[in-house]
Amino acid sequence: MTKLLLGTSNPGKLRELSVLLRDLHVTLVHPKQLDLDMTVPETGKSYAENASLKARAYAQCADMWALADDTGLEVQALGGRPGLRSARIVGPGGEDSDRRAALLKELAGLPRPWRAAFVCLVALAGPDGELSLARGECLGEIVPQARGAGGFGYDPLFLVDDVGRTMAELTMAEKNLTSHRARAFAALKPTLLERLALRPS
Predict the structure, then answer these.
(1) What digits encode the pLDDT tens for the residues 43-98?
(2) Nearest Cα to 192, choosing from 145, 120, 130?
(3) What is the CATH number of the domain that holds 128?
């Protein structure tokens, strides 16, 4: 069966990707299964560049097709920040709770609603350098207190438009219908099926 490497060590992303791709006839491989302990510097100037850097690095290192994404939270009141620096807003070693606290500190005193968008760029790379990209976006607003026990990152602060709950209050099934990552992978799926000669179950 065709193998596909998920180019991330983030446990939350691995869980989501495993569910999003479960209807494909493909063996999903995690970096730890290959003893890969990679940190790909996110030196790109866009989500697309960072996702491409990661996907190509994993694909070349493992000599197999690889998927990677770059995701950011863009808050209107902060001029689109933290954006590309969403995962690095508090520097090395920061926890999700630290990032959420830093975001709320920046927003304190600014008028609400704090409109925001989650943006995801996913890259599919082959060992020979082939590359395909897809984008997904989810609109909502930031709430001043964390809500929900699911998800990861900024999910407990992100109130999804037309849902009335934060991303962390959604079930995995609900999140995989509405999230930025789910929409990016839905857009990429036809290319994924073609490039890997796969078929959905």
Answers:
(1) 899 999 999 999 999 999 999 999 999 999 999 999 999 999 998 888 777 899 99
(2) 130
(3) 3.90.950.10
Task: Name the residue range of residue 123's domain.
Answer: 3-195
pLDDT digits (tens, 9 = 90+) for 2-20: 899 999 888 888 888 888 8
Asked whether residue 126 is assigned to any structural domain, the reply reads yes
Alpha carbon distance 174, 78 (integer Å): 28
Model pLDDT for residues 118-159, shown as the tens digit of each residue: 999 999 999 888 999 999 999 999 999 999 998 889 999 999
Q: Which residues have C-beta within 8 Å of that of residue 15, sequence separation ≥ 6?
A: 172
Q: How many residues does the chain have?
A: 201
Q: The tokens of 195 are what?
A: 């490039």
Is residue 201 assigned to a domain? no
Distance CA 59, CA 39 (A): 14
Q: What's the total number of domains in the chain?
A: 1
Assess if residue 9 is contained within a domain. yes
d(CA 97, CA 105): 12
Angle at 131 between CA 128 and CA 135, to 5 degrees: 160
Write out the catalytic residue numbers. 70
Helix (H) or strand (E) run with residue 103 in it: helix 96-107
- 67 in a domain, yes or no? yes
DSSP lists the bridge partners of residue 83 as 73
Give me the amino acid identity at 176: N
User: Would you call the peptide bond into 31 cis, given omega within 30 degrees of 0 as the criterion?
Assistant: no
